[in-house]
Design a protein that fits this description.
Oligomer: single chain
Largest sheet: none
Distance between the termini: 101 Å
Radius of gyration: 31 Å
Structural class: mainly alpha
Helix content: 25-40%
Length: 96
């Protein structure tokens, strides 16, 4: 750490073993090797719990969409469009 401006001068990558002691890139906390690793798309740790939860949400969404399609095919007004349209009621008067 630089004493003048409290910035890291060595790589902050910890990884699975001992930390990296290489010089960090300007404006970054990581060296060139670890910068590419840390900011690479998809390099983050994925937990099985999160993956299972996402799979369940996708399943529920798929089942919901299938149910909506079936209701539409049966003629059910799923989105309530008929309730939103103004209805005109004709009143008949007796002129007797």
């Amino acid at each position: 750490m630089n004493k003048n401006n409290n910035t890291l001068t060595t790589c902050a990558y910890i990884g699975t073993g001992s930390g990296c002691t290489a010089q960090s890139l300007p404006g970054s906390s990581y060296c060139q090797e670890h910068y590419a690793l840390v900011y690479r798309v998809g390099s983050g740790r994925q937990r099985r719990k999160d993956t299972r939860q996402a799979d369940r949400v996708r399943l529920v969404e798929t089942l919901f969409q299938e149910a909506v399609e079936l209701l539409i095919l049966e003629g059910f007004d799923v989105y309530g469009d008929s309730e939103l349209a103004p209805t005109v009621e004709v009143q008949e008067f007796d002129d007797r």
